[in-house]
């Protein structure tokens, strides 16, 4: 018995034999009873705001295109952040953390007058 619907009575709905056969087969795959299968299907359509007659072809393609555009936008933002913020900051930190190069000290040469000329 279906939980929550034990005290409800049954009502007859007339449908074509081929449709009933297909529905029974589908119902066995989905849930325990025909009532619960039909209820799940109705709730799915109501929750998602769609009708069984709607065509999903263009919608799914449009959604896929929109997602790809958004992903490309995110990639562009990340590349810009890397180029303008991460790499320069990393370069500055590396310059601060590296030991300084030892350069020879430059000494000024003082020119003394020659002693011979005096």
Summarize the structure in words.
- This is BfmA/BtgA family mobilization protein.
- By secondary structure, this protein is mainly alpha-helical.
- It has 2 domains: 9-54; 55-95.
- It has helices at residues 17-30, 34-48, 57-97.
- Helix 1 packs across helix 2 (34-48).
- 0% of the residues are buried.
Helix % is 55-70%
Which descriptor suits the 3D outline?
rod-shaped
Radius of gyration: 40 Å
H and E order: HHH
Total strands: 0
Mean pLDDT: 83
SS content category: mainly alpha
Descriptive keywords:
118 residues, 0% strand
Topology readout:
Elements lengths: L16 H14 L3 H15 L8 H41 L21
Helix pairs in contact: 1-2
In short:
It comes from Autumnicola lenta. This protein is mainly α and about 120 residues long.
